[in-house]
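Posting for a labmate who doesn't have an account.
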Amino acid sequence: MALVEALLMHVSTTGALLAAVLLFLVAYLISISSSSPEEGKDPPGPTPLPLLGNLLQLDLKQPHMSLWELSKKYGSVFKVHFRPRKVVVLAGYKTVKQSLVNQAEEFGERDITPIFQDFSQGFGILFSNGENWKEMRRFALSNLRDFGMGKRGSEDKIIEEIQYLKGEFDKFEGKAFDTTHPVNYAVSNIISSIVYGSRFEYTDPRFTEMVDKANENIRLSGSASMMLYNMFPFLGPWLKNWRLLMKNLELDIKEISELVSSLRQTLNPQDLRGLVDSFLIRKQTAEESGENNSLFHEKNLIFTVGNLFIAGTDTTSTTLRWGLLLMAKYPHIQDRVQEEIDQVIGGRQLITEDRKNLPYTDAVIHETQRLANIVPTSIPHMTSCDVHFNGYFIKKGTCIFPLLMSVLWDEDEWETPHTFNPEHFLDKHGRFVKRDAFLPFSAGRRACLGESLARMELFLFFTSLLQHFRFTPPPGVSEDDLDLTPAVGFTLNPIPHKLCALKRS
C-alpha cells in the first residue's frame, strides 16, 4: 500500500512539473507574439525557443545570410529573437529607405549591444545616444571638415600617402604578397593626419600595433562567440575572444591617452594641428568657465578618437583590398580600367576632379562597394518611440537591423545583383549613373559621417594603384582560384590571400 501511495505521489509530482513547464511555454509563446488591438500587428517571424530564441535557426558565422534567407520567407519586415531581445529586421531598398530616411527620427537611435557597451561605455560617437551622440557627432563633423575632410586638404594628404604605399608595393618587386598591412597603414594614416595632425611611418611599432589591433577587434567583434556573448553576457569571462577584446581595449585607451598627452604638452591655440587639438581647446574652455556638465571631457575624447580611428581605417581599406582582388580575378575589367586611365590621365598625377572623366573606373569602384557588401547588417539601430511601420507595430526601444546587403543585392533594383558588373553604374552611352539603391554608407541620421572622405580615398588610392601596377594572382594560381568568400567578422573582409603587383611601364 505504501508503495502504491509513493508511486501515485511521484506521478502527481511529475504531472505537476510537466503542467508547470507547459504553462511556462504557453505563457512564453503568448508573451512574444501578442500585441494589443490598439497597438497593431506584430511583425511575423520564426517561432523562438525558450531561452535560445531563434539561435538554432541562424548561422552564427554568417548571420546576415540567415537573415537574408528569412526575409524571403517572412517579407521585408520580420522579427527574430536574439535572446533575450526581439530584433526587427528590415529588408529591401524601399523598406530600408522608408525607415532610415523617411522616418529617420523614429529609427535613428543606436542599439548598443553588450560588446559595444564594453567598447564605448556610452561615450564617443558610434555607440552613444542622446545629447552625447549629438554633441560629439556635431563636433566631429565640423572639425573633420575644418581639417580637410572631402576638401583639397584631404586630397593633398591622400596623394602624399599614395607615394608611400606605392613604395611599399615596389619593395616586393612583382612577387606575391598580402596587401592587408600596407593598405591598412596607408588608409589609417589619412584619418591619423586629420585627427592627430600628422602621419606615422609604417615602421612605427606603436602605429602598426594600433592599426593591427583595430582590425583584430573588428574581426573578433563579429565572431560567433561574441554573438553568444551579446545574448548571454554572463559568459564573457569564459570566452577567449571577449578576454582578448577587453585586453585590446585597455591597450587602445592607454595608447590613445599617451598620444593625446603628447599633443597636450605642445598645444598652441593659434596653430591647431588636428581634431584632438580642437577638442583639447574646447575641454580647456569648459573647465575654465566652470561647465560641470560639459561633454568635452577625457572619456569622450578617448572614445571619439578611437571611433574615428577604427571607422576611418577598416571600411575604406577593406573596400580597397576587395577592389584589388577583383581586378586580379577579372583581368578583362582591369584592362578596361587601365585603358581609360591611360587615355585620360597618362602618366601625370591624377586628382579628384578627374573622376568625372573616368566613368568606367568610377563604376568599377562603386560596383566593388556594392558587391563586397562589407557591412551587411549595418550597425544596429533602435526605435526612439512606438512606431507604426508598413502595417506593423514596433515598440519603443526595439532593436532594428537595416539589412544593407538586401539593399545592395536587391533583385528588384539590380540587373545582376550577385555578379560583379560595373555596367550597373553606366548608361548605354558609357556615362556614369547614380543608383538610388547604392547605400554602402547607410542613410539617415546614422549614416557614415566620413562618407565624403572615404569616397575621395577610394577613388584616389584605387585609380593611382591601377595606374602604376597590374594586379595578378600568384604564379601557379588561376583567376578562378581566387576566392571571393568573405572572412567572418563585423565587416566582411577578403579571406587571406596574396597578389602580385607588377609595375607597369
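Reply:
Got it, the C-alpha cells are right above this. Confidence is low (pLDDT under 50) at residues 1-37.
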